[in-house]
Amino acid sequence: MLVLTRRSGESIKIGSDIEVTVLEIQGDKVKIGINAPKNISVMRMELLLAARNANEEAASPDIDIETLKNPVKK
Known about the structure:
The protein is α+β, with helices and mostly antiparallel strands. It has a domain at about 10-60. It has two helices and three strands; from the N terminus they run E-E-E-H-H.
């Protein structure tokens, strides 16, 4: 992992077409802006992990096949 120190208003460049800019620093929070092409997905890590966990949970249901074949009607 590359670790850099930046001040508010300073940027870093990733490849030739992604720019990350420090917009604001308040206490222990840093607001960043990411300028990237539309074909590059940019997601917060906690959202990516939540989606991955939800997909894994949906792919491995706790219900058996017989229950699916004969659902209980109310």
